[in-house]
Amino acid sequence: MNALLSQFVAISNAYHALLSAAHLAPLHARHGADSAPGNLWLQWNLDPVLLLGIALIVGLYCYGLGPYRRKYYPNERVDRLKVGYFAAGTLILALALVSPLDALSDTYFFSAHMIQHMLISVVTPPLWLLGIPSWMVERLFMRPTVGRIARWLCGPVVAFGLFNADLWLWHAPPLYDATLSNDTIHIIEHLTFIGFGLLFWAPILSPTPAIPRISRGFGVLYLFLGCQPMVALGALITFASQPLYQPYVTAPHIWGSTPLGDQQLGGLIMWLPSNIPALIGLSVLFFKWVEAHDRAERDALDEFDEFDDERLAGTAQSGDVALTTTQTSDMGE
To answer: Quick one: which of 12, 57, 207, 228 is 20 to 30 A from 85 by CA?
Structure first.
């Protein structure tokens, strides 16, 4: 652990030297952030590209519920619960990227950035999957090649590996700092968080039989193991003896924060709260798994009792027949 932490810090220091030599300004410097912003809660991110992207997602979903459903699946009804799940996921995505949380993340606090990453990567994706009806995506997987590729990408081993490799990669100091100095890189980071988040949750919450869900027992193990890389990365960041991310060292320090204290809080957020969705999913799967086993055992016992009752009834009937035969014979004599 100490050796890994030392390598992490060494890479960070080397990159910071290159950053200084190249005179690359962090995002808060390019935006001219004030050290004591009085209107911080009014700093909403109204980037037209971002708003257009969110509107496009909502528009596609509404098209699926309306004209698409009426044309191809007229007998399907709109499930309000699923609509609620999808709306909640989209609202959380907008909260993460449009609200003042975005300004706090990019300009002032590493811990705020961890909250943003948590909402994007582990909260929105499962809500979206819960909100998508099977019929809405059924036609996407009609081609055998598309189905095979999708099943491979959403396989538990591949999905687990891609999601966690992406998470660790973007939190390496060189790439992380680059996201705060380059908007294009930052957008790519967020897109991969969402995309690989959907892949990670697909083995548990796939909305279509074309990508079959794993069993409940395997799902419990999958989500438990899925928490561990994030726990390790959170611990690594929390116990670092010095700040790893240079933009937050030079950022305005508001509300009495310090770069190292803010980094430790961000590490704790990744360590604990970020795993809450997986723990909720794990708990639900576990109780459903236990319930299914109990039901199977009760059904087996009921079948055994019915068989036993039938056998006893058959024995009694045979005895009655034998007794009647004996009585008839006696009367004949």
So the answer is: 228
